[in-house]
Every structure is written in structure tokens, then in C-alpha cells.
Write a structure and sequence with these properties.
Blueprint lengths: L7 H6 L1 H10 L4 H10 L1 H22 L2 E5 L3 E7 L3 E9 L8 H9 L6 E9 L4 H10 L3 E3 L2 H10 L1
Antiparallel strand pairs: 1-2, 1-5, 2-3, 3-4
Helix pairs in contact: 3-4
Length: about 160
């Protein structure tokens, strides 16, 4: 398996897609029940293949990611050839994950306690795996509102 297996909740949300996936492999509901009962290793393999297919689709569509911690905001635009990063560093004890800390940041963008950095980063040979590793480290896929906002401020 290339990524990670979907959770039980994710499989439940994608039940119809999973049924369609099994149907493309000519596996009926009855055959699936039989597989789970009598060939659990094969059933596990089908779950893994389906999970990887879902992850590939999600990662192919992802355009922006964010990873926000108490004093750092990492914002990414996921381009075709590379990813652009904007990093916002807070050099005091404000916690921008709280409403008060975020409000402080909004009101003090040009303060010396706020540092902006920009960089481009090339993907490795497998850009979707690069994106997935970012998710494993805490990044989330977004619509890019924060990236666009700070990109306008910086540029």
C-alpha cells in the first residue's frame, strides 16, 4: 500500500464508491462477504487498493495545504512542477491557533514580531507521496484563502 488505509468512517462515507470499485472487478456483494469470511488477506488487499485509489484522486486535486501551529503558519500552493510556501513566524508568545492570537496577528501584520518567508520547493519523483507526507505531518488540504491573502500582502 502506497498511502494509508481509509478509516472505517471514511469507508462508510464512500460506501457507494467502494461498491462500484468492487463491481469493476466483477465482485458482487455476496462474493465480497465470502471474501471477507474465507479469504481475509485478499479482502484486506482490496481495501488497500481502494484506499490508494481514493488518496490518489484526492491528492491529484489538492491545490493548497496549510499547517498551523502556535507560532508558525505554513501555507502551500501545490503547483505542477513545485510547491510555493509562505511561512509566517510569530516571534512572541502569541498563540495564533486561538481566536485572540489570530486576532493579534491580523492587527499586527507589519509588527517586527511577525516574520514572513517565501520559498519554492521541488517535488521528489512522486509528488503525491510528497503531499501525503505533509498530511501525515499535520497539514490539511484547503481552498487556499490564507495563502492568497498572505501572498497579496507579501507581493
Amino acid at each position: 500500500m502506497k498511502y494509508s488505509r481509509l478509516t472505517k468512517e471514511q469507508f462508510e462515507e464512500l460506501e457507494q464508491e467502494f461498491i462500484n470499485f468492487l463491481a469493476t472487478q466483477s465482485i458482487t456483494g455476496e462474493e465480497w462477504a465470502n471474501l471477507k469470511e474465507n479469504k481475509p488477506d485478499l479482502a484486506e488487499m482490496e481495501l488497500d487498493v481502494f484506499s490508494d485509489l481514493i488518496w490518489e484522486g484526492v491528492l491529484n486535486k489538492a491545490e493548497y495545504m496549510e499547517h498551523i501551529s502556535a507560532q508558525h503558519m505554513y501555507l502551500f500552493r501545490l503547483g505542477e512542477a513545485n510547491m510555493q510556501a509562505i511561512v509566517v513566524n510569530i516571534k512572541n508568545d502569541q498563540d495564533i491557533t486561538t481566536p485572540e492570537g489570530y486576532e493579534w496577528l491580523r492587527n499586527n501584520l507589519m509588527d517586527d514580531q511577525v516574520e514572513f518567508l517565501q520559498a519554492d520547493k521541488d517535488y521528489t519523483d512522486d509528488k503525491n507521496l510528497d503531499k501525503f507526507k505533509m498530511i501525515e505531518q499535520g497539514a490539511v488540504i484547503t481552498k487556499g484563502d490564507l495563502f492568497k491573502y498572505f501572498n497579496k500582502i507579501i507581493n
